[in-house]
Structure formats: structure tokens, C-alpha cells
Amino acid sequence: MKKLSVLWLAAFVLISFFGCQPKSSESSEATSTEAPAAEEAGETEQRSSPIEVKEGQIAGKSIKVQYGSPSVKGRTIWGDLVPYNVVWRTGANEATYIDIPQDITVEGKTLAAGKYSLFTIPKETGSWTVIFNSDWDLEHGHFQYDEKNDVLRVEVNPTWESNSSEKLSIEIEAPGLVIRWEKLKLPITIQ
What we know:
The protein is α+β, with helices and mostly antiparallel strands. It is 21% helix and 40% strand.
């Protein structure tokens, strides 16, 4: 009886060992190339504020913007989730950044070619401050913001629309960059 138990145990171990091995080198390669894609897809699906990348041209000048796109989800946005008179990363998660390979004019002021994080200071009334900061690769957005790295600050007048945008968007369209979220429309003139 003892010999039979040992034989069954040995058979079970061998079956388990060989059953877990890849069938051929081809299936092994397929697994290794599919794994990163699956990991990336899982990472994207897990983000509550997915990363958006927009590229386009304004007045013949190339612009790229990358941002985390949060949703309203029934929350009060302005003055609550995004407080007034406090620097906001203009998106979610990492700092929003803009990449411009040539000099541009923002609200009549020159901004040299480069990469910049994009921040805003929302206000309950009047114009909002839009900030271009040289420290563009900030992992935690406004928590790492340092005013001494500001390259350009401009004032922009928001408008409030009747339709609400569930997800934050930053579009490259006339007159330059247009930020929309909830009922906000913030057009930033770029030439």
C-alpha cells in the first residue's frame, strides 16, 4: 500500500512538472510578446483618469499635449474638487505637459521651443492664470509644482457652456488650446 502511494505521488509530480512546460519554442515566444501588451492594457484599464495624447498644428506650428483625463462622476468640480485660487495640474495624476518644437506666442507673449508642464489657477470670477513651467516631468502634478520654474504666466477668460463635458479634454483647435471639463471652456490663444 505504501509503495502504491509513493508511485501515485511520483506520477502526480511528473505530470504536474511536464504539464506546465511550454509545448514548443514557438509558444514560448508568443507568450513573451503577448505579456507586455497584456500588462499595458491592464495598466490602462486600471487608471480612473486615462492618459490622453493630442497632436496637431496651430498656425503651421506643431504642438503635442499629454494629460490625465478625469471624469466628473457626479462631483462638484469647480471650487470643490478643483479649488479656486490654488494651482491645479490641469488634469489628473502626472502633470499635464505641452511639447512645442518651435517658438510660439501664447496670449501675445513668446514661449520658447521646449517641453513645459501646464498648470492653471482657477478663479470663481474673472480670468484664470495659465502657467507654463519648465519642470515638465512631474510624477505627482501640482504636489511637486515650484513657482520658481515658471517660464510664462498668462491670463485667460473662461466661458461657461450649457452642455457639460463628462471627461476633461484639451484640444488643439482655434484659437490654440481649448480646455473643456464640466461646463468650463478655457480657450488659450496660441500663434
